[in-house]
User: What shape does this take?
Amino acid sequence: MHKIILAGEHSLLIYFGHKIDPNLPKNIANFAQQLITKFPNLIIDLTPSYTSLLVSYNLNLSTHQQFANQLEQCLNTFKYKSDYASSALLSMPVYYGFETGLDLERLLTEKQLDLNAFIDIHSSVEYLVYAIGFSPVFAFLGEVDSRIRTPRLATPRIKIPAGSVGIAQSQTAIYPTDSSGGWNIIGRTPIDLSLNNPSNIDKFKTGDRVKFHPISKDEYIKRGGKL
Assistant: This one.
């Protein structure tokens, strides 16, 4: 069930559902691609989220009502799929160490888990890319096992090192660059996710999957990781 609402002078918001659904991200991404193909000159920007797609368009080429009608027609013919097991899978190495996991020791105590158990829980899941955040390379991944879910920090850190892997409620994510933030940091990847590498812009796509695999401290350093 979809719904289109006005979201600004030159933006429309399409709701594809009212609750988080593992099948929505890939369907929203596919519909966004369909719009780019169909209206290459009209579309200015597309911003997907968990259940919606924000569409910004060129007002000089269409009116609100005309474009809303065109979107409605596209939605009526869009083929929704309910199985995306074949979506792309991205493997990310992580060093789960106390030097890189700034909140790891505290979480082990709170969750009454030893380090190996915690690592197994976090790295055994294929996480779905639900949405993209403040950076094209900041992907909101879910869902985290209930045994290691934890709320955001009451006081965000001023600086979290690039590559840090964090948990906030039922989500996990990787900070692509040094930045402030309130996620619980449990490890770090040596992979460079910064936009200094242009190919990283398309690193994560909504609907794809990410799986973390634990690496040793030596391998982390060997691959360029910093402590």
In short: Residues 11 and 56 are 4 Å apart (CA to CA). The chain has two domains: 3-77, 89-222. The chain has five helices and 13 strands. Residues 24-38 form the longest helix (15 residues).
